[in-house]
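Following up on my earlier thread - several people asked me to post the actual chain instead of describing it. Fair enough. Here it is, all 378 residues.
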Amino acid sequence: MKHYGLVGLTFVAFLSLNTENVFAQRVVVAPRRIGWGYYDPYYSVTNRVYAQATLIRAQGDAAVSYSTARNLNAEAYSKELDNWKKRVRTYWDSKILAERKRMEYEHVKQIKRLKYLNDRKWTNSRIWEQLKNHPELSNAQIKSGRALNFLLDRLTASALPYEFDPATSQFGSEALREVSLSDEWLSNITLKHESLTFKANESGKDSIELWPYLLRWDDFDEERQAYDAARLTVLDESKQAGEVSVENIRKLQDALLRLANEFHRNREVKAWGHENRRYSHFNLADRFLHNLDREILRLEATGDIRPFQGRGGYDPKTDGKHIVSLLTYMNRNGIEFAPAQAGSEWAYYDLFASMRAIYLTVAEQDESTQPKDLSTIE
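Reply from S.P.:
Thanks for posting it. Predicted structure:
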């Protein structure tokens, strides 16, 4: 019995030693999760510590990430502001540059206009010097009416009123009597208003007396006669009713359109002009047709029938009483001197001498014949 008792005590001691070794080994081993069916305070505490450590680490990482994000956002905003400032600066720089270029361009245009006007003044001064000092060299210009139209333009800018009034005229009665016009003299002066010509002693004609050379070809007889008939219909209706109907205006426009189309489609006209180098004939006929179309346009817009009558209310007894009233009427209505007809040159010479004498009294005040030195303008 004693023997078994000793053995039992030894076995119990051995088990107790092994048990302590087992627990000691469990402390050394890393903690591991046990089944959900068991509760171990040790694992609960250690897991909480690990969770808090992970949370603190995550918060630190988040703070670093937030700081980096703020820095990146600040840099992006700063760059955006820089881009915006550059954009604004570039915009206004371009505006300033564009304005400077525009001002330079306007300056150049102004200089060109001044030079152009000054060149016209030089041209006018040279023409006037020749007409004033050497009129014998201007016979061709006088016969063609160009010299008279030049003096008319010069007087328009210096001496002629818009409408002649004896009570306010700067010309005295004695001076006006010296430049009075007779019916014989007026009958030798031919006036021109756009496409129509008429003598200065008679009213304008209702029909076109002289068509341009190319339009007088037999190829255009039918269209030309149709236009003349439509024109006379418009004039007759205006005299009877005081106005022109839309239907007759459209008929007149259609007749002119047929004439113009037939003229521009005619190959013989173009071939003849090219072969004989008569380009001016074609241009003259084309401008003539354009003038007729402008007359119709004015009739459509205003109902004014006067362009078709070749005058703007011209009365030889009042408007042709003397040179001043005649020139005033011509200036107000855009009428020019037509070339002199054979045997009428003497009247043009007399008129030129009178107009030249009148312009001599105001030539010094006319700036259109006084050019300036623009060499210093840059």
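The longest strand covers residues 190-193. That should answer part of your original question.
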